[in-house]
């Protein structure tokens, strides 16, 4: 005779009864140990993302223990604290999100992080796997504002700001004033001034912002 035990680790005593044709009953017992089997991971992968966006981490897992529940621990590889996710018995796949705030280190247009995942059943059996996520830098978007006109020889002031989906800093502002003068600042600034020597004239001001990547 065969039987499948749903959950381990545990100890069970098997008792067999044999009855003869005169109604006599004999018994025998056997004590067996049922071991837990650790869950196993498959197909762990992560989507590449632009900085500021959510990466989707997916994977599958199997466990012959149909009553086991599961805890997934994810180390996202970007210095954030490991996260845990709980799954009910019978679960065989997962899909979780994580926002990457930057492509570290600075000076590179994209960087890879190693994501380490561990699936553990409620009997402490576990398996660990890893995958790579590529995070891409996104260019900053500068915004400028200033008065529409100025007198020749007077100081003209431009106000500067920027947005960036990453937690980036601006390492260079370049301002092309339109009259042949160009100013470059190797730091983040919020305003800049310039004197136009000759009017009347119309100039187009162009600004370039460079982030740390
Ligand atoms: Ca198990
Ligand atoms: Ca980088
Ligand atoms: Ca960046
Ligand atoms: Ca950026």
TrEMBL record:
CDD domains: PKD. Gene3D superfamilies: Immunoglobulins (2.60.40.10). This is PKD domain-containing protein. It comes from marine sediment metagenome. The lineage of its organism: unclassified sequences, metagenomes, ecological metagenomes.
């Amino acid at each position: 005779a065969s039987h499948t035990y749903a959950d381990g680790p545990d100890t069970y005593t098997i008792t067999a009864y044999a009855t003869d044709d005169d109604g006599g009953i004999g018994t025998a017992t056997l004590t067996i140990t049922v071991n837990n089997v650790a869950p196993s991971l498959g197909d762990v992968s992560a989507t590449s993302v632009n900085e500021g966006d959510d990466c989707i981490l997916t994977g599958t897992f199997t466990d012959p223990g149909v009553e086991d529940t599961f805890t997934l621990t994810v180390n996202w590889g970007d210095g954030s604290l490991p996260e845990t996710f709980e799954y009910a018995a019978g679960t065989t796949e997962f899909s979780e999100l994580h926002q990457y705030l930057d492509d570290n280190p600075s000076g590179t247009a994209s960087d890879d992080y190693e994501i380490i995942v561990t699936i553990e059943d409620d009997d402490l059996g576990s398996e660990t796997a890893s995958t790579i996520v590529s995070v891409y830098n996104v260019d900053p978007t500068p915004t400028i504002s200033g008065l529409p006109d100025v007198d020749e020889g007077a100081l003209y002031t431009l106000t500067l700001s920027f947005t960036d989906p990453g937690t980036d800093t601006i390492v260079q502002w370049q301002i092309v004033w339109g009259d042949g003068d160009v100013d470059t600042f190797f730091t983040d600034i919020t305003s800049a001034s310039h004197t136009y020597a000759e009017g009347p004239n119309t100039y187009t001001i162009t600004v370039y912002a460079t982030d740390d990547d």
